[in-house]
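Re: Re: ligand-bound prediction request (bumping)

Still looking for help on this. To restate: I need the protein modeled with zinc ion bound, output as structure tokens. Inputs repeated here so nobody has to scroll up.
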Amino acid sequence: MHLSLYRKFRPDRFEGIVRQEHVVRILTSQIEKNAVGHAYLFTGPRGTGKTSIARIFARAVNCEHPENGSPCGKCASCRAIAEGSLDISEIDAASNNGVAEMRELREKVQYPPVSGRYKVYIVDEVHMLTDSAFNALLKTLEEPPAHAIFILATTEPQKIPATILSRCMRLDFKLIPEEDLEKHLKSVLDAIGKEYEEEAVAAIARAGAGSDRDMLSIAEACIVYSDKLTYDTVCAVLGAADFGRTADLAEAMLTADMPRAVQCTESILAEGKSAGVLLKDLLDLLGQLTVAKTCRTAERILALPAHLFARVKEIAGKIDGRIILRATEILIRTENELRFVSSPRISLEAAILRVSYPEADRDPEALMARIANLERKLTELAAAPAPQAASPAAKETQEPQEAPRPQTERAAPSAPQEDPADGYEFPTEEPVFEEAYYADEPARPKAQERPLTASVPPMSVVTASEEGSPFAAQPAAAPVSAPVNAPASEDADRIYARFMRELRKTPKSGALFTMCSDLAPSFEGTKFVLSTQSETILTILGRETHRKAMTEVLAGLGVSDYEVRLQKKGTEPRDAVAELKKNFKDYPIEIK
Ligand SMILES: [Zn+2]
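Reply:
Sorry for the wait, this slipped through. Here it is.
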């Protein structure tokens, strides 16, 4: 018969329990003093040892010669229980939630124990009992026979009626720390003679998330694959992404390489990984990057195989901590949203785009991310003659920022060393990129004078609609007949600005907004042309849902004919400098 690892290695003495010393101490001392209670409530997360301790306790109270509070396993009572004594009953409330079972229990409990001193009833998942079953149980707890002990176990103590709670001694079980899980897993693997990699054990313990049972069942799924338990096996079993591809995605996203970030996302999701899992993988990786950036003992804390750690270190070396922090914040927010949205994939894509495209964002963190990215590009440019030298050089300039604080705790990723805004001043009359989408007309006096074509509502309407409903000021059916004059480029800019504004107000258009925010508008006759230099954006905007949304918004602005097209431009690395100069006109920028 196949026994699961968890059942096979279920401890039969208190010494074998992983953690929960505070519970064990109380119970063993009661046994030694011969002062056990009649009713206990064991609460805590699943897999933390509630049932295991309940069983040991049930045998120990009946044992003739308990050793340090644990059952001896040799006396008549211990042997009788091992053969299946009626003195210990386990009831799974999840499957016996009826009042009938509790009434039956109430009758049976009156009969004295067969072989030992106590009859012990272990009621697992007790919160599942119905109200009338709780009432029946309460009657028993109110007048328990001297030989009865009740151990009620639950993961949800808040669902237990106060009348029951007040009659129980409550013991809270805690999540088991990873170190203890690792230690336990190693002892189990040693016992079954299985070789293992340290990283594999660490990964399984991490996946166990505080539960011994969960950890052992993951381990069990992993060990059947090969003679030796390897990290790669564990990753494969856990469905953890191919680490390298998640790393590529994170790198693209954090270096603001949007087209690559979109491609990586598409290809990972196309293989069937769910958006939620990819998001979790990304958050894990961001946490690792933070640790790699801030902790001297990162290698030991992360316990990754050497080549994976090298990759984490490489990415962490070239990304500013503030960018990692911003990305983490955006993704955590998305993680919360993901539970409530009908299409998690779109939310995830929007979040990834937001991270990779801080230009579309107006908050200070996004600005910091832009500046940090421009700084990085500058450093790379400075090292341009020898491209290979670029990365070490970038690393060097980062080095002083790494906080030399020793951090030994395996803590959640801590924030970078200081408040991101510290030490930076923004020009107050800013931001240039806002002008492109939201600038209001006063900045362009000429445009304001120009009479608009029939297809475009007058300018005053734009200003009026600023506060109110997006479409309130629009004519119900905007005339879309041919304009008298061909629209000029100012009109294209203005319509584009209004298009972006409307898009921003449209619910769930985050991804679309981000992708549209870098288009160049123009008119060809009456056709509104939006040009992009990115094939990826062209492809994505061509999708049915995006097309439909854009068509709708544009129709609201009186534009019935539009096209998104590809525009090639042959500039590249120098753009970074140009952009920096453009965005910070008042600051002298020199390229060394
Ligand atoms: Zn015994």
